[in-house]
Amino acid sequence: MEHTHRPQRSNAAYARALDLIPGGTQLISRRPQLYAPGLTPPYAARSQGARFWDLDDNGYLDTMMCVGAAILGYGDEAVDAAVIAQIGRGTASSVSSPLELELAEELVATIPCAEMVRYCKGGGEADAIAVRIARAYTGREIALFCGYHGWQDWYLAANLESAHVLDSHLLPGIQPRGVPSGLQGTALPFAYNDLASLEAQLDRQRGKVACIILEASRGAALPAPGFLAGVRALADAHGAVLIFDEVVTGFRLAPGGAQEQFGVLPDLATYAKAISNGYAMGAVVGRREVMQVAAELFISSTYWSDTIGLVAALTTLRELRRRDALNYVGELGKAFRERFNAAAAAHGLRLRAEGLPQQLAIVADASYGDERRSIKDFYVQEMTRRGFFTSFGVNLCAAHTTADLDLLDAAWDEVFPRLAAALVAGDLGAQIETTPSVDAFKRQVG
Ligand SMILES: Cc1ncc(COP(=O)(O)O)c(C=O)c1O
Questions:
Q1: Whose CA is nearest to atom 7 of ligand 1?
Q2: Which of 66, 273, 284, 304 has the most ligand 1 atoms within 8 A of CB, as the residue to mutate?
Q3: For residue 353, what are the β-bridge partners?
Q4: CA 105 vs CA 63, 276, 317: distances in Å
Q5: Distance (Å, rounded) from C-alpha 236 to C-alpha 241?
Q6: Tens digits of per-residue pLDDT, 23-33?
Q7: 351: domain CATH number?
Q8: DSSP secondary-structure letter at 210?
Q9: Same-domain check for residues 314 and 336
Q10: Which residues form the domain of 409?
Q11: In angstroms, what is the span from residue 248 Cα to ligand 1's centroid?
Q12: For 300-336, what is each residue's pLDDT tens digit?
């Protein structure tokens, strides 16, 4: 199963890109240095189902799936057919498409908190819109946040206070260069599953908090009993708008996202990624009273009306339902979790796949200490060699099959004994032939 050659063409192209494209990629999570640099292909020539092929035509079974966006799989026949038909009718005009209405009706029918809808093209944009609406609605300025919410000024302003505020939410040591210093104090953190830390911030900033924004769950991090209901109650008590960032959880955990899964309703929620199976699309939804304020705000962009994203989203949502795809992905995720955990345990490894089956994370036990980085690097290196594009965040999709799990299982059977032996021998570092990976997102964000 091991590939006989490296992704040479992809690596050469990436070397050229570094000269033309600052940072090499548009999304941090696409940087090969986050995986097994040199082995991980920076480029795909094509993708289909749960696989992609690099510029040397090496194929990879993908468990990242476009950072979770391709929930139905790459090149889904139904979504692509709808997009192609839409291209035939026109992708844009000088006025809006009725698809905007059709999708709004679908979202309102599917998402528990949704009464009104606005569109955009991505998750960070959706979050920025939601925070703007919340600030306008409340007439207040402070956003309390937990987790990752995009690249915009409102969020990175958190690090104006110190370059370490976002360390546990995003990445260690982000310098907020380019973010106006006047925004200092407008985005403040609280800790996940820690109501006391949220309450302390609300007390400290009494009467000034516009919104509380968080991911209801993320990978292995699941809400403790009462946490989300407690956040809801605190938001109400302090007159703050509650925003669930459902960019990852939306159309993955359940059709209605984390709010359906956990039974707590936010005022606003943001969506991107899986909403449109790999086509550019984002949405902000929420309670009428709050959303209505957007009518008076300047929130406006040309391509937010693009019909491709609209039709891709509409078709993705309908196909998810028609195929009962999230249940299928959930069953597959359970099997992944069981098989991974059994394989790891069989080799005496304290590695576990955890979290909800639609969005798993592999966790190396804390007792491994500093070796955890090397464990991940070795795992990624050896799985990449065997034709997998995989890491410690796992996003399965409707195009994965039990046969794919068999392939993974066979690879684990080869990789885990070597990992276990290297740990016992204490020479794991020496077995990592690629340069050590760098942190993408501390919380495995895409
Ligand atoms: C929870 C969350 N919010 C927002 C974003 C930003 O979304 P986008 O990359 O579409 O701007 C991400 C991206 O990974 C995310 O995971």
A1: 123
A2: 273
A3: 362
A4: 32, 16, 12
A5: 8
A6: 999 999 899 88
A7: 3.90.1150.10
A8: E
A9: no
A10: 29-72+324-431
A11: 7
A12: 999 999 999 999 999 999 999 999 999 999 999 999 9
